[in-house]
Write a structure and sequence with these properties.
The complex is a heterodimer of chains A (about 160) and B (about 120). Chain A is of the alpha+beta class and about 160 residues long. Chain A has helices at about 10-30, 35-85, 110-130, and strands at about 90-95, 100-105, 135-140, 150-155. Chain A contains three helices and four strands. Classes of the chains: A alpha+beta (about 160), B mainly alpha (about 120).
């Protein structure tokens, strides 16, 4: 049986196969039970370290996801708060696609002032949330908005 | 990869086409041509200032927003307004006809001038 290198994580099947093989053809036949005990202890220790590593990774990813959700939530709140102060905005829809947050601003009065305010907001939001990508679209209110089916309503 | 001189050349080419259609009432195409004149100037500036050559509209928008040392907020708003109108003209046939008229074209030409005036 080859010596197990440090840092090698064995699958459960490998672990039992190795222990069984060792038991069958090695230690038991030769009567060296101490050697078998050491080997099993070593394998168990490696399994424990592997489990600990995976648990730490899982915790790290959960924290990362939690922070991301919080960050995106604060971005949505920021946009909602700012947009609610813009006159003539009827509704806002958004969609996260291709690593970009698309926002559709639906206005009941499409004029220069609304255009400037909405695109100014896009500029400001991009500065405030530099880790996210944005694309704002301004559309007049019509009976059929022609938006993607999976948009969500923000306002 | 096009060098910045090519973008100015293409902007002039697009401007020549604009002059041929500006007196017709095809506002959807007029706004589209104005936008593509502006886009060539923007690509020229991105190459000149940043040596950047965006492959997508999104990349181009992001570069303008993230480089306020070279591009002002008003520059971005002018460009974005042209982009928004041209996309509406191309993809929202039930919407643009009530929005894009002679006045809107005049305002868009002002936006185009705002962009061209960034020439170093």
């Amino acid at each position: 049986m080859e010596k197990i290198k440090d840092g090698t994580f064995l699958e459960h099947r490998d672990f039992w196969d190795e222990a069984e093989t060792e038991a069958s053809f090695g230690a038991i036949e030769s009567g060296n039970y101490e050697k078998l005990k050491d080997k099993i202890f070593l394998l168990l220790e490696k399994e424990r370290k592997k489990t600990q590593y995976l648990e730490e990774q899982n915790l790290y990813l959960r924290r990362l996801l939690s922070r991301r959700i919080e960050y995106v939530g604060s971005m949505l709140k920021f946009i909602k708060d700012c947009a609610s102060k813009i006159s003539n905005i009827d509704s806002i829809f958004f969609l996260h696609k291709n690593n970009t947050y698309f926002f559709w601003f639906i206005t009941n009065k499409f004029n220069e002032k609304v255009e400037n305010t909405v695109f100014s907001l896009e500029y400001d939001v991009s500065k405030e949330f530099v880790n996210l990508k944005f694309d704002f679209i301004l559309l007049p209110k019509t009976p059929n908005l022609n938006l993607p089916l999976d948009v969500q309503k923000l306002l | 990869m096009a060098h910045s001189g090519i973008h100015i050349q293409q902007a002039k080419h697009n401007t020549n086409f604009f002059k041929k259609i500006e007196n017709f009432f095809f506002y959807d195409w007029i706004i589209t041509v104005i936008f593509y004149i502006a886009l060539q100037y923007v690509d020229h500036f991105l190459d000149y200032f940043l040596k950047e050559h965006p492959n997508t509209h999104q990349d181009r928008d992001d570069l303008l927003k993230m480089n306020d040392k070279f591009f002002s907020k008003n520059f971005f708003i002018s460009y974005k307004s042209l982009k928004n109108l041209s996309e509406m003209a191309r993809y929202q046939p039930d919407k643009w006809q009530n929005i894009i008229d002679a006045n809107k074209i005049s305002k868009s030409l002002v936006d185009l001038e705002n962009i061209k005036n960034r020439i170093p």
